[in-house]
Amino acid sequence: MAAKARAVNLLRAASGASCRCPAHSGGLHYPVTSTPVRYAADTKNTDYAFEMACSNIRFGEGVTQEVGQDFANMNAKKVGLVTDKNISKLPVIQTVLDSLTKNNVKFDLFDDVTIEPTDVSFKKAINWAKKGGYDSYLAVGGGSVMDTCKVANLYASDPEADFMDYVNAPIGKGLPVTVAVKPLIAVPTTAGTGSETTGVAVFDLKDLKAKTGIGSRAIRPLLGIVDPLNVMTMPNRVAAYSAFDVFCHALESYTALPYNQRSPRPTNPHNRPAYQV
Q1: How many Å separate Cα 273 from the centre of its chain?
Q2: pTM value surpassing 0.85
Q3: Buried b (16+ CB within 10 A) or exposed e, 141-158
Q4: Can you say whether the dihedral through the CA atoms of 254, 260, 261, 263 is positive or negative?
Q5: How many CB atoms lie within 10 A of CB 216?
Q6: What angle do CA 194, 236, 220 make, to 5 degrees?
Q7: Within a 13 Å sphere around the CA of 67, how many CA atoms are in the beta-carbon half?
Q8: Cβ atoms 126, 155 nearer than 8 A
Q9: Model confidence at 271, in pLDDT bands (50, 70, 90)?
Q10: What secondary structure letter does DSSP report for 116?
Q11: Edge-first strand listing for the sheet containing 56-59
């Protein structure tokens, strides 16, 4: 009886409580009127919306072995496979190579990715991608590998672009990506960066000794293949660093400028950030 009474009291408290979120709080509702409502953002040059432009995700133990079929389904003729020298020695790469071979997908392997990429290491991957003539890309590794693959894909798709054209302003020009990039599938081997879902690639610009990046929804992976088996080989410290990575990203939600304080408001929704905390 005591348990029943507690449950009834909880239900009564919940039904009587007022939700304070913007969607349901009565004090924040705009009135229904025949006169057009002027929202706060209409009277100033700040934004009034945010967007979450993310990749498709496939999750499951052993799902890595499907990647060859994915490229075959896309009629891929030549895949640029990007990884690093440590990952290239792990079982995940053999699984990937077996899947590509089984499905008659041609590929080239680039494993010269630098952990914590720089503009120098990015340019090395870009030159490789430009020479390869790939119609699709596959990144297998952590955030450094996935970011390197995104950038290689971008600049190979726009070979006349200067490197600083797409680097975030004010360090670079921050130009919008208007070229069509090739499909990219990402297979993460860590659990912290989330790079398989974003259109962001971070690197160190050596000359300025600054960390910056390239951000555009155009470069986000088409598909992220999240296979729990691929994190089984992570060293203890890498697992710990991945956890801190998640923690730091969560903290950004408290330090980032709210979307409705961001200015100037984009004149075209395509220019709105690919995601907003």
Answers
A1: 12
A2: no
A3: bbbbbbbbbbbbbbbbbb
A4: positive
A5: 24
A6: 15
A7: 37
A8: yes
A9: confident
A10: S
A11: 56-59, 223-226, 184-188, 136-141, 79-82, 107-110
